Amino acid sequence: KRNDGCFLLTLQDGDIINIDVTIYLNGYHGDTSRTYLCGEVDEPTKQLVKVTKECMLRGISACKHGVSFKAIGERISEHVNKYGYSIDPFIGHGVGTIFHSEPIIWHTYDYEPGFMVAGQTFTIGKPLPWPSSSR
């Protein structure tokens, strides 16, 4: 542990790392992230990262004017279940003048009301599923 309270970790073969970048430009907040494999990664870890990206893409594919926000979590949950994974509650969020603003985008089945509107901007993250046996 450094004297400023931060931890220094050395990446090892087989690790995965997610780099999340946030920007504030012209009064608006936004963020993006990308996951990387470090060195030699075993097949179950590669599969986990692959399914995570597929979940994000399936969530995005649900988006269109008039569709319930619930459709995003449904698509993600259906895909995760095929692989025997589970997801801790994880959310995307609106992009705007307030960081992590409405709408809240659940990546699991949810019961929140709300419908997508053309021109609305929000994030859909890569929800990291976990093998159900590891819980």
From TrEMBL:
UniProt domain Peptidase M24: residue ranges: 10-124
Superkingdom as given in the UniProt entry: Eukaryota
GO molecular function, one term: metalloaminopeptidase activity
The protein's name in its UniProt record: Peptidase M24 domain-containing protein
GO CC annotations, alphabetized: chloroplast
SUPFAM superfamilies: Creatinase/aminopeptidase
